[in-house]
Amino acid sequence: MTTVDLGLPTTGLQHVPHLPDDAPAQTKRDFTSDQEVRWCPGCGDYVILAAVQSFLPSLGLRRENIVFVSGIGCSSRFPYYLDTYGMHSIHGRAPAIATGLATSRPDLSVWVVTGDGDALSIGGNHLVHALRRNVNMTILLFNNQIYGLTKGQYSPTSRPGTVTKSSPLGSVDAPFNPASLALGAEATFVARAMESDRAELTTVLKAAAQHRGTALVEIYQNCPIFNDGAFEVLKDRTQQAARIVRLRSGEPVTVGPEDDRRVLVRVAGGASEFVPEAEVGAREVVVHDAAADDPSGAFALSRLDSPEMTHVPMGIFRQVSRPTYDDLVRAQVDAAVETAGGPATDDDLAALLRGRDTWTVG
Amino acid sequence: MTSKTAQTLDRVVIRFAGDSGDGMQLTGDRFTSETAAVGNDLSTLPNFPAEIRAPQGTLPGVSSFQLHFADHDVLTPGDAPDVLVAMNPAALKANLGDLPRGAVLIVDTDEFTKRNLAKVGYAASPLDDGSLDSWHLHPVALTSITVEALAEYGGLSRKEKERAKNMFALGLLSWMYTRPTDGTKSFLTKKFGANPELLAANLTALEAGWSYGETTEDFASTYVVGPAPMPPGTYRNVTGNTALALGLVAAAHRAGRPLVLGSYPITPASDILHALSGMKRHGVTTVQAEDEIAGVGIALGASYGGAVGVTTTSGPGIALKSETIGLAVSLELPLVVVDIQRGGPSTGLPTKTEQADLLQVMFGRNGESPVPVVAAQTPADCFAAALDAVRMATTYRTPVVLLSDGYLANGSEPWSVPDVADLPALDVGLATEPNATDDAGEPVFRPYLRDPETLARPWAVPGTPGLEHRIGGIEKADVTGDISYDPDNHDRMVRLRQAKVDGITVPDLEVDDPTGDARVLVLGWGSTYGPVAAATRTVRNAGSAIARAHLRHLNPFPGNLGDVLRRYDRVVVPEMNTGQLALLLRAKYLVDVRSHTSVRGLPFTTVELADVLSTTLEEIR
């Protein structure tokens, strides 16, 4: 990390052309393509699509400067339904393709749509390297804990013991926690939202779009065909409050309804536990700091999660500023061009071709 | 000073051989530059192990550099050296087999210790047992003379002084062949400028080597190889990888688009990544990717955004990139995939050359996914081949494979630097507005509406208002680009993609047949150009008529190729694989071509090919 001010952009959309002030306001309709949406009835993807189509106008960007790149899987059909530029690429490779696009085109708002299999299994390498590099793009990871498009095999986020066509006796694979993985890769923006919580999802999407660098948003999404009800305990109004930990930077980490609030406090050895509010006393309360340079606190929060979903953090785990790969790459090229007196002319090219060691004949 | 004679020679082949740590590649490079400055035509062949530093003094650790220079045009690095410089017993043992009897042999006697001899299995020193009597042996105590010459440099360790022995050897050879050393001196000044004592020591060693030749009686004569007649122009020496990098930059410059390279380090392609990463001033962006797949993905993403997207690799990397190349076939976006072939399968021979990726790049993808294939034929030709690859990719909106190989990549030759104004102009013609009207008469954009001539689809880059569209790897409906599973549409799209590649404009194959009555044609492709041309010359000098042609375009083939093949009684196809082009020719043209193949990790020798051609000529006599 550099301490020198390179004059690099600080927000995700800084170089993306916005609509003029007097332009008619965009609506959801402007972002809806003419393609027939072909997900299964009841699929959580419909809800996310509607949320994204409704949210995009709020960015005020020129539509032609928005690009959605996806991999393979149910979620990856997403770009077809948005009337922006879009590429439905190949399994797991969307972050790599988006890296090439974002690095060469600072004027684009680049989005990656992926799923748990696409991003964490076949494309795991590209995901961690995108996060490590901090390329300016927003990755929406639809996590339904199952392979949908291949008709129901367990995925790298399936709970242990999940019975599927390829695991008739229950899956014995240890699952990834996507937030922990991203934080381990030193992602600068990591958040989680529920497909069904439109308000929270929209808040997170907005923050992710504004973030300069790679933003990873994990979205819990129900697959009604192969893994129905995977997140039911989080949607169930009677259980929701006791399980969902709503992360608010600068505030104590709590869970539970008003009348039964539990507060996260530190325990010996650096761990933490939820205790009833009344029992907090002199104990050190864990206050969420999404902007902390050290990702350890955010990582610890991501570990509250478990396959049983006893406590599931939602919201923004981490939101820090670090120079982005694409900005730094462009800065080097721009500086080289500027130092040399502007874009290369034919004479400059001729000098390059000649090199330093020539001889003349005739 | 002893008086020395000067003899004139028309050509010389020198091989420098030593331990990987002895600086033989550097010595060879410097001697090459000196030779270029004299105006000789030349060709080089570096040969080094895949290990960076194999155990010192062992056979696997031997690194060599061969240079062929002449007062006439040179086609190959030479079959066998006239002079071998062997810096240790391992270098002697590994290279002596290639040295014809009577050739000059210069050895560093200091390295012929009991221990070093034992390392390579010499029971007695070959310097003493008479086993080298058939060669013209010059035993020189290179190391100790160098150290002695550097006695005054108190700040340098013995090891540092010893390391300058390659400069001593270079000085000696420069004297022998009357090469100017000014270029080497300024090179050393740049290299060691920060360390004046080391610089002075290296310069002293270089001069000591020169003086040694001049004063010792062991070397009776110097040799002069006059300049070769070359077309007027400005020349420089280039390796294939340098020429290729320059070609890519020049093409992007002419196209007015930025060049973006996505690449993962791999031998022998990495030098292109190195070269391009130093050309930022020319608007070149290089991304060192996390793997081969990301390298091509980054290139494709950049192409989607309107750049000239390039990825560089070798055979194993092509295997990994295949799926993304297939995506580019479906997306119909420009993409240049550079394959610097090396020995395979698997890791194979990373630092040795081969031409065995032809069928991989032709067919190594799922489904019907035709890709144009261009092959460079000499190190300098890599420049023109790169321009051609970018032209095809941008004009036809297709991935293009550019084939080079380890021999071209690291080998070098003089290159007549072209005028920028003479380079082909590349008008990429990005789409800027709708290209059709819908049923209601409203202007719309149809991403798969093709140019009737080239069959290329529009290249509409994000940021262009009104042309928002979606593309992907699922089969497209013709014209609209919507997802389509319709059987007839798929059949049509497969044939359209094939027709587009088949219809790429490539020049007719030129046949070199001076007498016009040859009955045998030798047809090469890629880096066999030099050896095939040299062998053809040998056969013709012996009085036989033979025709020669060389393929730059492997897909599509030149339109007249079938006619050319059928014109001859015999067609001989030499390849550094087991007959891949021969397979394609037989399948497409039903011509019974004769395959001559070798997969030794080394280019063909002129003698070997001339022999094959003579035998073929005998057969039909």
Structure description:
The complex is a heterodimer of chains A (362) and B (621). The model of chain A has no long low-confidence stretch (mean pLDDT 95). In chain A, β9 (262-266) and β10 (272-276) form a beta hairpin. Chain A is α/β, with parallel strands linked by helices and 362 residues long. Chain A has eleven helices and twelve strands. The longest helix of chain B is centred in the N-terminal third of the chain and has 20 residues, at 196-215. Chain B is globular and about 95 Å long. Chain B is an alpha/beta fold and 621 residues long. In chain B, the strands form six sheets. Chain B has a seven-stranded mixed beta sheet with strand order 11-10-12-13-15-14-23, with helices on both faces. In chain B, strands 3-4-2-5-6-7 form a six-stranded mixed beta sheet, with helices on both faces. Chain B has a five-stranded mixed beta sheet with strand order 20-22-21-24-25, sandwiched between helices. In chain B, α14 links the parallel β14 (373-375) and β15. Chain B folds into four domains: 5-225, Pyruvate-ferredoxin oxidoreductase, PFOR, domain III (Pyruvate-ferredoxin Oxidoreductase, domain 3), CATH 3.40.920.10; 237-422, Rossmann fold; 429-484, no CATH class; 511-619, Rossmann fold. Classes of the chains: A alpha/beta (362), B alpha/beta (621). Chains A and B meet through β1, β2, α2, α4 and α10 of A and α1, β9, α9, β11 and α11 of B. β2 of chain A pairs parallel with β19 of chain B.
